[in-house]
Amino acid sequence: MIFKRIINLLKLLNKKSIFFFGPRATGKTFLINQELQTLPNVKIIDLLYAPTFDRLSRRPTLIGEEIAHNTNIIVIDEVQRLPRLLDEVHRLIETKNIRFLLTGSSARKLRHGGANLLAGRAWQAQLFPLCFNEFQQFNLDHYLLFGGLPFVVNSIDPWEELKAYSGTYLREEIVAEAAVRRLEHFVSFLDIVATKIGEEINYASLGNDVGINPRTIQNFFTLLDDTLLGFCLEPYRKTKRRKAISRSKFYLADLGVTSSLLGRHEIARQTEAFERSFEHFIALELRAYLSYRRFDLAYNFWRTHTGFEVDFIIGDKLAIEVKSTNFVHERHLKGLRALREEQLIKSYCVISHDDEERIVDGITIYPWQKFLSDLWADKVITQTY
Questions:
Q1: H or E stretch covering 341
Q2: Is 226 helix (H, G, I), strand (E, B) or coil?
Q3: pLDDT digits (tens, 9 = 90+) for 87-115
C-alpha cells in the first residue's frame, strides 16, 4: 500500500534548509527517495552506508568538493551519526547557497554534543507515523491496536513487526545513545509508562515502581523526547478562577508501539483500553497537524485540583474534549463549561462516536471522522490571529 504523505519536502526546501527528524521507520528515507531522488539538482548522502561514512568522517570537506555544478539541494541522511559535518554544511549554506535536508531519528547527539545547529539557517520539521488523512481507507480499530508505522501497516503480520520494533530496535536505539547505565531499568520504565499514557507524570511514584530515583525517571522521559519516541503535553496554566495542576502528561509516538509494550492483542469497544487509545489517537493527530501545517500554537491540556478536565487546548483557539461514547450527554460537557467561564478560549468541541454533528450550549459535538476530515481540510483551526 502506497501512502501520500502530507509533508512536502521540496516545498520546504524552496524556502530554507531543513533539519528533518522523525522516529525510525516512519518513512523518512522512502519519502526522500520518492520526492527528491530523481531530481537532477539533488545529491543524497547516506551515512548508514559504511564507505560514505568512513570517507566523510576522515574529510568532511568532501561534501563541498564533490558538488556537481547543477546541485543546489544536498540530503544528508542520519546526520546525527556524524555531527562534525554540520560545520561544512554551515559553510556551504553561506558560500554556495546550497539547501540541505538533514535527517535523523534522534536530536539528542546534536543537542547534547555541542554540534553546530546552523544558528537559524535551517528550520526543523518532523515526520510522524501515518495520520488519518494519509490513508485511502482508515480503519479505526486496526489503527488503535497497530498504529501508523508504514512497515507495520503494510505487513501481513503487524504484531510480529511491532514485537521486533519494540523489543529490538527501541533497546538498540537507547544503547546507541549511550545514555542509560542499566538498560534493564529503562526497559522496566518503558513497560510501566505504556500503562500510564495520558496520565499525569509522577516521577516519585514511577521511581518507586521501577526501583530507581525520580531524577533518573525524569531523564528517561527526556530521552524518549530526544529520540522522538514520545512527547510530554504541558498543562494549561492561564486559568485564574480554578487552579490548574502543574504536572505534564505523556504519550508515546505510536499506538502500535504502545500495544506491543503492553502485550495487547485486541482493544474491544466500550472498554477503558479503547477510551484511552482513542484519546491517544486524537492527541497524535493534533500534534501532527500542528507540525505539518507549521502552526505556531501552544498545545496543552487542562486539569484542575478540583477535578475539572479538558483533554486538549490549541492556543486560544480551541478546547477539545474526547469521549468514546456513542452519544454525548450534558455530563460530558462539565470540563468545557468550567473552562469557558474563564473566557480565554474562542471555541469548544467534543470529539465522539456520535452519528451526527450538533451544537449543545455553544459546544460543537463532532463525530470523530467529521472532526478529522475538517481538521485536515483546515476548517477547524486556521493560522489567522
A1: none
A2: helix
A3: 899 899 989 889 999 998 776 666 655 45
